[in-house]
Design a protein that fits this description.
With 278 residues, this protein is an alpha/beta fold. It is built from seven helices and twelve strands. The chain has a ten-stranded mixed sheet. Strands 11-12 form a two-stranded antiparallel ribbon. The two termini are 25 Å apart. The C terminus is likely disordered.
Length: 278
């Protein structure tokens, strides 16, 4: 069974490489895709960067763990940029201070994972204590560098789990002056799963067969660019299981400077995680 061609596993986002810089993280997100991930011996920043350049993808996204904890992050970003690569980063925002932003001058785009507009509730979810004023100042500095800024929000039962809650989140994002938001369904979490197709009544292309009909959508809501990311039956028990799936497995460059097929775990390969962190 073939997936929708607009899906990650259907061949979209071909010109991207995910780079797993570090397993270190100061958060405690319960759905983290890195739980149970393989642990390999760190290579040097030079080797990792050289391998990323050799791979040939135009767009490179730096992941973890928490990639802002990687001690040679500035070197990696600057070196990739010097080879005309678009460099993106996904972070929990904990280290985003005006001083730290100096390390990110050559960053093309940043995804800041904030899962509630009430930052106290975001701390309940992630363990990360964010200060709104510091965050706003850091975002302003990033925008001065012409960095594209998106907030990533996982929709979680009891938190962001209704249309009204997403609208409140959009107001929060507009106050921070970011460029876009991504609302995503949870993978593998039965109890906390929120069905985006249900809360938006199948607007914007959202559906209950994202494997066949598409799992990535973009629209405008109240003047804000909004991306949606749904999970199919390969990723959640809330949707019909997929039999004999035909997937294109994304590549991941690990911190030992070796490119592997998808995100890998101790004792098994779970290829469906590849791409879920964008």
């Amino acid at each position: 069974m073939k997936p929708c061609s607009n899906n990650f596993c259907g061949g979209n986002f071909k010109d991207w490489l995910e780079v797993y810089l570090t397993s270190e993280c100061n958060g405690c997100c319960p759905w983290c895709v890195d739980v149970g991930g393989i642990r390999v011996k760190d290579s040097t920043a030079e080797k990792i960067t050289r391998e990323a350049i050799f791979y040939g993808a135009k767009n490179i996204i730096l992941l973890g763990g928490e990639p802002t904890l990687y001690p040679e992050l500035k070197y990696v970003i600057d070196e990739l940029n010097s080879f005309n690569r678009n460099v993106y980063l996904t972070t929990n925002g904990s280290l985003l201070t005006p001083e730290f932003i100096k390390n990110l001058e050559n960053l093309t785009g940043i995804n800041i994972s904030i899962h509630h507009y009430d930052l106290r509730k975001n701390q309940e979810i992630t363990g990360i204590d964010l200060d709104f004023n510091n965050l706003k100042e850091s975002i302003s500095l990033l925008k001065n560098n012409k960095t594209i800024i998106r907030l990533n929000c996982n929709c979680i039962a009891g938190y962001i789990d209704s249309k009204q809650e997403t609208l409140s989140y959009i107001d929060f994002a507009k106050e921070l002056c970011v460029d876009a938001i991504r609302f995503a369904e949870l993978k593998g979490d039965k109890k906390s799963f929120v069905n985006l197709a249900t809360i938006f009544e199948n607007e914007f292309g959202l559906n209950n067969d994202p494997y066949s009909l598409g799992c990535n959508f973009i629209t405008k809501i109240n003047g804000m660019t909004v991306y949606f990311r749904q999970m199919c039956g390969l990723q959640t028990e809330h949707r019909t299981a997929i039999t004999e799936p035909e997937q294109i497995i994304k590549k991941v460059l690990y911190n030992d400077a070796i490119v592997r097929e998808g995100w890998q775990y101790d004792g098994a390969i779970n290829s469906i995680n590849s791409g879920c962190c964008y």
